[in-house]
Amino acid sequence: MQSLRIFIQRLPQIQAMLPGSTIVYVDIYYSAFNLLNQPEKYGIEVTNRGCCGLGEVEVAPFCIELTPVCNDASKYVYWDSYHLSEVSYQYLAKYLEAEVLPQFNF
Description:
Order of helices and strands: HHEEH
Number of helices: 3
Helix content: 25-40%
Largest sheet: 2 strands, parallel
Shape: elongated
């Protein structure tokens, strides 16, 4: 957590080194919690395991052709035991586009 605070404190310095750019820091974990707490709102049915393999221990490199995969990944918050599914990332992108980016003048 300390490294995150340092990073956020240094954002203005980083911004100053990149004229003409806009750096936006967003904590996506709050938004991801919406997927876990209100899955039915997003058409999600499975929140406690990933689509790949058993969904409890597999991470991307272990999700290979021989690993069983669920029938419909759009019903899962997670792709594997760590990474969000495509539908979860789509929700986050829409949230950022609608709620976060309008706060900045691009």
